[in-house]
Design a protein that fits this description.
10 strands
Length: 220
């Protein structure tokens, strides 16, 4: 199976070139300096309008701010509205993650998955869900259970670096292999952060994965 390269884009500017260079999926998010936040209505609309007719999926970040992934009731309400908006704009799926004090925030995640199910009903089509690198904030001894919980609820994939931010992807290959093995095809483990067009084939080969993520995943 060919390797799927997910290009992380901050706006529409580089999306056409990334698709031309081989990106088969776009993760769309604003404010990469803080790890990504929800992009604007116009950016989502323009990207979906360009990418989807070309057979390229668009995953939209749902995150109201930088910082941690423990959200208040007001923030969760914003995220529910953003999920509905993104899905109305024909995004393929949404990207979010909720953790609190080193644990998967099951209540918050369930609330957002409920919003996804409502969006699916409204448009009569499945909405993919990526649980993002909030996963890496979950304690290592709870990550396998988190994979089980997310897989049982139909989450499509987990974006993970396999370690804390700032560590080398090469140093995390052992842990990423463990996550891939535990997931056992029930949910996709999507490695990211530190993966580029230069090392992606090596990383994917080492892990036995068919998807990888990065801002430099294709050569522009």
């Amino acid at each position: 199976m060919a390797l799927l390269r997910e290009f992380c884009a901050e706006n529409m500017e580089r999306v056409p070139a990334a698709i031309e260079a081989g990106a088969a999926r776009v993760e769309l998010c604003d404010n990469l300096a803080v790890g990504g936040t929800t992009p604007s209505y116009g950016v989502i609309k323009a990207t979906a309008r360009y990418a989807r007719p070309r057979g390229v999926a668009v995953m939209t970040m749902i995150r109201p701010r930088g910082g941690d992934f423990a959200y208040s009731a007001d923030e969760l309400a914003i995220m529910r509205d953003d999920i509905a908006c993104a899905c109305e704009l024909d995004t393929t799926g949404v990207v979010f993650g909720c953790s609190r004090d080193g644990h998967l925030d099951e209540a918050a995640t369930d609330e957002l998955l409920g919003a996804v199910r409502e969006a699916e009903k409204a448009r009569g089509e499945r909405v993919q869900v990526t649980f993002h690198m909030a996963f890496d904030e979950i304690r290592a001894d709870e990550q396998f259970a988190a994979i089980d919980w997310l897989a049982e609820r139909g989450v499509t994939r987990i974006l993970t670096h396999g370690g804390v931010a700032g560590t080398s992807i090469e140093d995390n290959l052992g842990r990423l292999r463990e996550l891939v093995e535990h997931a056992a095809g029930r949910i996709t483990i999507l490695p990211g952060a530190g993966i580029t067009w230069e090392n992606v084939e090596h990383v994917a080969g080492e892990l036995g994965v068919v998807e990888a993520h990065g801002t430099k995943i294709v050569r522009l």
